Here is the input.
Amino acid sequence: MSVRIAVLGLGSVGKGVLEMIAKKDLDIIVTGVADSKSGLIDPSGLDIGAVLLSKRTGSCGSVAISAKDVVSRADYDILVEVTPTNAGDGEPAFSYMKLAIERGKHVVTSNKGPISLHLKELKGLARERGVFVRYEATVGGAIPIMHTLGNGLAGNEILALYGVLNGTCNYILTRMAAEGLTYDQALAEARELGYAEADPTYDVKGIDAAIKLVILANTIWDNGVSLDRVDITGIDLLTTDALRLAEEKDCTIRLIAEAFPNRGVLRVSPRIIRKDHPLVFEGSLNAITLETDMAGEITLIGKGAGSIETASAIIGDILFISSHVRCN
Ligand SMILES: NC(=O)c1ccc[n+]([C@@H]2O[C@H](COP(=O)([O-])OP(=O)(O)OC[C@H]3O[C@@H](n4cnc5c(N)ncnc54)[C@H](OP(=O)(O)O)[C@@H]3O)[C@@H](O)[C@H]2O)c1
Here is the structure.
């Protein structure tokens, strides 16, 4: 039986999801879509090619249909929520998700805002309604960290985690070390190549990595931590000299996010690490190391962002849900 989805947000991630569903001819029917200004609803299934074409030239649908209309009226099994992250209060995505769950719909999202702020509440509501809330794409892009934690490592105690959770910072540090660029030069290059946002504050000040650390910590230990519990230092004050000094000791500097629950440590900061450490790699990749009681140390590495890479995580969550429940 096909699974029916409604997609909120047709930017880089939303379009990637639709493109891959069409290209791979997946058994997924799209019954609703919305962007910031318009929406479309069709219970028998939208023509994905036509939606993407319409979006290329402007809005995806009718201005008479809002995102909220799609959430509350469309006929779908899973709400795919891929609108921009609002780290302040998680809105309007948080309200869309609650509305979908109240309707007995599953939720799949790449949106770090509501998941970092309201995971406990969303999980509680979902449990009451017997639906899934899945958020693989919120941390590490294509890296299947949530599937690994919930499935492959189920039964393990996770003793600690550390990782490189922001590709923009990793790219800047790589370029500073390799070419002796200043922070400003490396940032300008990252912007030119599309690795850094026009406003890179969240990335370079370590806030994006800290938000992902909060999501991981709450997923693993269910300890209700919030962003203000994370000790955060960014890379924006790092000098080329600091990287050169590290280099002289066969080390380099990486922005490391780490959690050691037994010691109460939740921290994001630039760290000097040996060049042969698994968390030292070039460019914009992400990686996460888990210390576990049975499996020992496991490191996952992969693309932390990108339209198709993030779509991989979203589609993985959609297919997980459709294989675990009866969708019709
Ligand atoms: N891009 C990545 O590689 C990546 C990776 C992991 C996670 N994420 C997360 O995934 C989410 C989407 O990222 P993105 O890169 O696709 O963003 P994006 O390119 O900026 O696209 C956002 C989309 O959401 C729509 N939108 C904005 N406000 C809306 C609202 N209130 N209701 C309905 N739609 C609304 C926008 O509409 P308009 O088209 O009308 O402007 C746009 O289509 C973000 O939360 C981001 O943090 C992204």
Remarks:
- The pocket of NAP is lined by residues 8-14, 34-37, 67, 82-85, 92, 110-112, 137, 141, 305-306, 310 (CB under 6 Å).
- The CA atoms of residues 123 and 265 lie 25 Å apart.
- The radius of gyration is 20 Å.
